[in-house]
Amino acid sequence: MNRMMIAATLLTSLALSGCVATGDQPQNRRVDPDAGRDAYIQLGLGYLQEGETESAKAPLSEALKLDPRSAAAHLALAMVFQREGETASADKHYRAALASEPDNPRIQNNYGVFLLSKERHQEALGYFEQASQDTLYGERSRVFENIGLTYQRMDRPEEARASFERALRLNSRQPMALLQMAKIEFAAQNFVPAWDYYRSFTQYSGQNAESLWLGIQLARRFEDHNRAASYALQLRRLYPKSPEAQALKASDQS
């Protein structure tokens, strides 16, 4: 049973439990509003995961009717509006979620990612740094990844490197940090660590045009012809119009 079916079943059971028969007369019984709120949130998140953002709004709105300060409901709605490209509404609900739970590292990190996507780098960095202070947060390594990406976009390479290294100390299997470290070392012509980082990255993540082109260059550097050919084939087939595919074509012709 998927998440939406579970939440729908819970909502039905809550509705049915709203009254209890005593003889021939129904007797009203109060429904737990927290359970109802949580069921609506789970239903909304289920729709969001399925990509049905329009369907997600109704249950999440119902959750907020039951609990207008629900950080989880505001966060879910923020992600819905972010997916739809409704920047102002997404920002509004992120801020509402933070107003309810200002020290929640998940909300801080998610809002930081949203701000980073809007090139509000300094603001994003502030929220990431707040989230990183929670040493018990289970996704702390991802926060440091995001800090590194922010520093990269701010053209602060040394801080970016330190943040990616910190992320990998917390979780050596973070693919984004591994790829970024491979890029950093390759740019510095430190090819051996770049190749090591890259090969670790391929163990934990799928490829995109950027990573395939880096892999081709590194494989060629170490004369791993089979791997270079495999990456080149994938790049041409999967991303034929990408700048990386054009760079590969130019390198083959030179």
**Element string (H = helix, E = strand):** HEEHHHHHHHHHHHHH
Helix content: over 70%
Strand arrangement in the largest pleated sheet? 1-2
Shape: elongated
Strand content range: under 5%
Distinct helical segment count: 14
Low-confidence stretches: 12-26
How far apart, in Å, are the first and last alpha carbons? 56 Å
If you average the pLDDT, what whole number results? 90
What's the Cα radius of gyration? 24 Å
The helix-and-strand class reads mainly alpha
Structure description:
This protein is mainly alpha-helical and 254 residues long. Helices cover 75% and strands 3% of the residues. It has helices spanning 3-16, 33-49, 53-66, 71-84, 87-100, 105-117, 121-132, 140-153, 157-170, 175-187, 191-204, 209-221, 225-238, 243-253; strands at 19-22, 25-28. Strands 1-2 form a two-stranded antiparallel ribbon. Strand 1 (19-22) and strand 2 form a beta hairpin.
SSE arrangement:
Elements (H helix, E strand, L loop, with lengths): L2 H14 L2 E4 L2 E4 L4 H17 L3 H14 L4 H14 L2 H14 L4 H13 L3 H12 L7 H14 L3 H14 L4 H13 L3 H14 L4 H13 L3 H14 L4 H11 L1
Antiparallel strand pairs: 1-2
List keywords for this structure.
mainly alpha; 254 residues; 14 helices; two-stranded antiparallel sheet
Please outline what is shown here.
The chain has 254 residues and is mainly α. It contains 14 helices and 2 strands.
